[in-house]
Amino acid sequence: MEVDYSVYLVTDSTPAILGTTNLEDVVRAAVEGGMQHPFLQEFSKSSNSMVGGVSVVQYRDKHSDTSDLIKTAQSLRAICKQHAVPLIINDRVDVALAVDADGVHLGQTDMETEDPVIARGILGSQKTIGVTVSSLIEAVRAVEAGADYLGIGTVYATPTKEDTKAIIGPIGVRDILDGITGLGNIIPTVAIGGINAKNIQRVMFKSQAKRKRLDGVAVVSAIIAADDPKAAAQELRRLVTEQPGFISGQSNPVKSVDDLLRQVNAVIRDLGTKHPLCHNMTNLVVQNFAANVALAM
What tens digit of pLDDT does each residue of 39-74 get? Predict the structure, then answer.
């Protein structure tokens, strides 16, 4: 099954994130602007309007009983199916099987008992299997085990996941992307962890490897805790698909570290001749070094 991973919603039913709102209502609003249905795609093309929202939903609930999980998953399955958006179940292969979900997402603790091979044997070859990874070793193992996509993170610290094993940042994501491109089977990837409308474009930009970029981002509170989930989902889709303003406004955009290094001499020369006002932000560790660099320029 071909999946659009651009805006991947992971649900959170805890009061701290969801509040008193009904989860099904939030998910329904988030997927209503999706571009999956052929009519919506044609409408978007013909009217030049921005139509877009959540492209994948992952139902994640670590606390409810199995019967309640199945009941909620069935409701979410109906909502997602109506809008042609895949529903992935977090961890629980049995729940995914019970509601005929589109797939399952496995964390590293789940990999110890149910790897992608076992999950696929239970769910069937047409279902999507995702795996969370935070290192290249974990990523390689997941790809070799037959994962269909990877959730890479945690990018930034987030209150929605307190058992975070590692904070890897966009550069850590890039290193993993760079490493898996040599495996021959390059699968889709999404980044997760503390991503929102303010940092989503920089995460996408800074994590780009030489031969691979993210296929999307996974978000939780950016939509689940939003006052208007539909508007939040549409804004995230716009930010993922549009070129960042900090790139488009440059006459000579930086595409790699090598490009940046090649421009250093010209930038320093311009600082010396044009004398712009410089705002030097630093910290106690490097303040002397930063001050000397500023004075030298």
Answer: 444 544 444 334 569 999 999 999 999 999 999 999
Output 110-115 pairs: Cβ under 8 A, ≥24 positions apart.
111/141, 111/142, 111/145, 115/145
Query: Burial, 29: exposed, middle or buried (Cβ in 10 Å; 0-12, 13-18, 19+)?
Result: buried
Please report where in the chains the tokens 């921005």 appear, as a residue.
50
Q: What is the pLDDT of residue 281?
A: 77
Identify the bridge partners of residue 9 per DSSP, sorted by sequence position: 57, 219
The pLDDT value given to residue 252: 64
Alpha helices in the chain (DSSP H): 15-18, 23-31, 38-47, 66-82, 93-99, 108-111, 116-123, 136-144, 169-180, 200-206, 221-224, 229-241, 245-248, 257-274, 287-296
- The three-state secondary structure class of 30 is helix
The C-alpha atoms of residue 247 and residue 83 are separated, in whole angstroms, by 33
Return the residue matching tokens 């010396």: 272
DSSP conformational letter for 154:
-
Q: Give backbone dihedrals phi and psi of 86, rounded to 5 degrees, phi first.
A: -60, 140
Below-50 pLDDT ranges, the chain: 35-41, 43-50
Closest alpha carbon to 131 in 269, 276, 118, 169: 118
Whole-angstrom CA distances from 224 to 50, 95, 184, 207, 274 are 21, 22, 36, 25, 47
Q: Tell me, what's the pLDDT at 43?
A: 45
67 alpha carbon, distance to own chain's centre:
29
Q: What is the pTM of this model?
A: 0.80
Please, what's the b/e burial string for 66-85 (b: 16 or more CB within 10 A of its CB; e: otherwise)?
eeebbebbbbbbebbeebeb
Q: Could you give the C-alpha distances from 228 to 9, 12, 27, 197, 198, in angstroms and in order?
A: 14, 16, 11, 13, 16
Tell which residue, 107, 203, 220, has the closest CA to residue 164: 107
